[in-house]
Amino acid sequence: MPEKRYGSTRGKILRAAAKLFSKSGYHRVTMREIAQDSEINAASIYHYFPSKADILKSLYAFYSAELHKALPDLHALLRLAETDPPHEVLMKAEFHFDQEARDFLDQILITAAREISADSESERFIRENIFAPTENIIKPLLQRMVELGRIQPLDIETLLTILVYYCFSAAALNHSPFGNKPEKYQSDLSFIFSFIKPM
Amino acid sequence: MPEKRYGSTRGKILRAAAKLFSKSGYHRVTMREIAQDSEINAASIYHYFPSKADILKSLYAFYSAELHKALPDLHALLRLAETDPPHEVLMKAEFHFDQEARDFLDQILITAAREISADSESERFIRENIFAPTENIIKPLLQRMVELGRIQPLDIETLLTILVYYCFSAAALNHSPFGNKPEKYQSDLSFIFSFIKPM
DNA sequence: GTCTATACTTAGATAGAC
DNA sequence: GTCTATCTAAGTATAGAC
């Protein structure tokens, strides 16, 4: 969780902001609301963050750092691709955050998904944290598996679009009335991967 | 297009609003910007719409009316399902708006996708215009096809999730750097439908 | 580091002339 | 129906005491 120390003021502000942003959207949330929810005076927020925009920026930075830590090792996966069943390798390529940070990180993703294309910071965030990881891990894995003759040739680009679009929706709609349960997320991924036929 | 008459003031306001909302998001756009873009005085907008929120509401109403006109006839499709190749019937179930209105309608969808879960009006809009049509047409079609023994049994619920999530992303990311070209939309759908194996 | 009070700006909306 | 001028509220941010 942000700042490690659970009760830190900066951490409380970030958690309140993420919660409120994800629920109502960045623009609807006021500094006064963030203050109220984090039980701190509105003026004091400016002791920790120069601006409201900077709170969002800090949330993105935190998420990116966590993602970086959670990313699977591509080289290890490429080696596994030579011996292990293709579907197992692909499911291992999915990264998971620890349950404790999960809700908080989800909220950041929801917020970013909404600001996409209105705010270049958010657009870059989505690119680097949803689109790029899939491109950079699943794509080379599939290419390698085809090369090794371990799976049947397939339209990799289209599969990636479906996969990434699914992930984007899952992120954007998480905790909304249209959101999936976490278990369903896993089984949906398996369904998409079932396009990939082992030799 | 709104109000049919292309040059109508009300129509100009709606088109400007949809364009700006889709680009920057509802909250970032000011009445003054809408006025400037539609080449009308800001105060005059209030002659046509009681409030900014009402402009959005009117956009949603317009979209829903157009969708209703474009929806395919389920009963006709169910009859086709008895005789025609399953994939062809499914592709026919996709509705298309005329090219003229397309961009405008896309912008409304983008706007709504962003406001989802922050604004109940927008949430209902997405439910009725993205989720419901798929549920109400593709689902009974697939069920009927299985019943008729024309396709192999499959996990219909999961397929619908993938399909609807794809459609949501395609709508939300349209005209963004992550958006697909219209041709790709068709081929992606075919890819998803290729999960469905004819008998 | 935290507070009270307040400055400054923006944006939705209205009044009322033409 | 369209305009100019203006009101009002809300929201970001700062000053400065403690």
How would you portray this structure in words?
The structure is a homodimer. Chain A contains 10 helices and no strands. With about 200 residues, the first copy, chain A, is an all-alpha fold. In chain A, helix 4 runs parallel beside helix 8, helix 5 packs parallel to helix 8 and helix 8 crosses helix 9. The longest helix of chain A is centred in the last third of the chain and has 28 residues. Chain A starts with 8 loop residues before the first helix and ends in a 6-residue tail after the last helix. Chains A and B meet through helix 7, helix 8, helix 9 and helix 10 of A and helix 7, helix 8, helix 9 and helix 10 of B. The structure holds a DNA duplex (18 and 18 nucleotides).
Secondary structure topology:
Two copies of one chain form a homodimer.
Chain A (H helix, E strand, L loop, with lengths): L8 H16 L6 H7 L4 H7 L3 H19 L3 H10 L2 H7 L6 H17 L4 H28 L8 H18 L8 H12 L6
Helix pairs in contact in A: 1-2, 1-4, 1-7, 2-3, 4-7, 4-8, 5-8, 7-8, 7-9, 8-9
The structure holds a DNA duplex (18 and 18 nucleotides).
Query: What order do the helices and strands of chain A follow?
Result: HHHHHHHHHH
Strand content of chain A: under 5%
- Give the helix proportion of chain A (percent range): over 70%
Count of helical stretches of chain A: 10
According to DSSP, the number of beta strands of chain A is 0
Contiguous low-pLDDT stretches of chain A (5 residues minimum) are none
End-to-end Cα distance of chain A, whole Å, is 43 Å
Question: Which structural class do the helices and strands of chain A define?
Answer: mainly alpha
**Gyration radius of chain A, rounded:** 19 Å
**Overall mean confidence score, pLDDT of chain A:** 95
Global geometry of chain A: elongated
Please, what is the oligomeric state? homodimer
Largest sheet data of chain A? none
Largest binding interface between chains? A-B, 40 and 40 residues
